[in-house]
Specification:
The protein is built from twelve helices and 17 strands. It is of the alpha/beta class. Helix 6 (194-210) runs parallel beside helix 7 and helix 7 runs parallel beside helix 9 (269-281).
């Protein structure tokens, strides 16, 4: 089939330029004309929970990758909090077999930093390095500085990235949301900011000492942003990500619903504004979703009883386009770098030829019942957004198309 783009805009070599051309695709089907659309390099998310093997009732490789394709993604990195944990070749191959069979886009699995993500013994980095995009214990923080230093030394030797979930368990005290005004007003135990920025401070010193490629997952606090900013000025080989929900919400916007509970939590307004400044000045390198589906029952118990994690892969671009680009905070070119260019560059993936096509004039209301993901719990439910994905193309083959185009 043929896709023809008329009066469209396309990202090319760092700029948005006019696009009028046709593209021959491998799929059979009716030729389609796209008018006044935005054609972008397909996105890459370095932080996605696909839940398989082990937790297929939450999400599967099949459902998760279809949701990713609907969001405009053709490369995603799957997090290691699975069963079995990808801490050995045997275990990571179990995941790779499912990916080979069921994925509609490229899935790059993390291997765990420690065996079983227990923080007590390093996984076999040498055996795993050719199967894993990088190493992470996401879902848990590595509590021991000595263990993290050894992990960094191994990663440095193998030219691999350590992607760290930074969380000091000794500072959690059973908290479930940000330790701020909303928590105090509602008598809910809070999670202090230091539980994140404390381990980041430790790890940045270790990364500087070892020369390791260090990446920080889901940054949420103003202190974290400043620590990373200063580390970059010192020449530390560090990158970081934040997620759309941290850029849009503050803790005073919470509701006592599971769809507002994630880890780290949505922080205070001063943290949100610091994250935006980090986006603008380049301290924050990429936007990842931390797409973390759970069952409806697991998310039905309010802020205190629900499991942590929300979904966001299908709405990420439209959320960021609406709140960052349409509002004039950043350019569309900057958003493309955050969602497509920088993630691939940091983790050694080649420049993509895959594309996604968006109608950024299309206004819609987020309805989780329409998601392709099994997960339905999103803080963006009922929000008015701009930008619907019309088509995603991987290896010259359509992997997602909107029904009514």
């Amino acid at each position: 089939m043929k896709a023809t783009f008329k009066n469209c805009q396309q990202y090319e070599n760092g700029k948005i330029i006019p696009a009028d051309y046709s593209l021959e695709l491998m799929n059979n089907g009716v030729d389609t004309v796209f008018n006044n659309c935005l054609v972008l390099p397909a996105f890459c998310d370095v932080h996605v929970h696909l839940r398989e093997p082990g937790f297929f009732y939450k999400e599967t490789i099949a459902s998760g990758t279809r949701a990713c394709a609907r969001g405009g993604y053709t490369d995603v990195f799957s997090m290691p909090n699975l069963n079995p944990v990808p801490d050995s070749v045997e275990h990571i191959k179990e995941q790779l077999d499912i990916i080979e069979r069921d994925a509609v886009i490229n899935v790059h699995p993390y291997a765990s930093i420690t065996v079983g993500q227990q923080g007590e013994k390093l996984s076999d980095f040498d055996a795993l390095e050719k199967y894993a995009i990088a190493f992470s214990d996401d879902g848990k923080g590595v509590q021991s500085g000595a263990m993290m230093e050894n992990a960094m030394l191994n990663a440095k030797r193998l030219n691999k990235v350590i992607a760290a979930h930074c969380e000091d368990n000794s500072l959690l005290f059973g908290g479930c949301i940000h330790d701020g005004e909303f928590a105090r007003q509602n008598n809910i135990k809070g999670i202090c900011s230091e539980s994140e920025w404390g381990p980041i401070k430790r790890d940045l010193e270790l990364a500087e000492k070892t020369g390791c490629k260090y990446h920080i997952c889901h940054v949420s606090t103003k202190e974290s942003v400043e620590l990373i900013r200063q580390a970059k000025k010192r020449g530390v080989d560090v990158t970081c990500e934040t997620a759309p929900h941290y850029l849009v919400f503050n803790d005073m916007m919470l509701k006592n619903e599971g769809r507002f509970k994630m880890n780290p939590p949505i922080r205070a307004e001063e943290d949100r504004l610091a994250l935006i400044e980090g986006i603008k000045d380049g301290t924050i390198d990429m936007i990842a979703t931390d797409h973390a589906p759970h069952s409806a029952e697991e998310k039905s118990k309010g802020l205190t009883g629900s499991l942590m994690g929300v979904v966001g892969i299908e709405t990420a671009f439209s959320v960021m386009y609406t709140f960052l680009v349409k509002s004039g905070i950043i350019s569309i070119e900057k958003l493309v770098k955050l969602m497509s260019i920088n993630p691939r560059k940091r983790f050694g993936l080649p420049k993509t030829k895959d594309i996604c096509v968006f109608d950024v004039n299309d206004e819609y209301i987020v309805n989780p019942d329409e998601f392709l993901s099994k997960g339905r719990s999103t803080p963006f439910e009922n929000m008015k957004l701009y930008g619907s994905c019309l088509m995603t193309v991987k290896d010259n083959k359509i992997v997602y198309t909107k029904e009514n185009i």
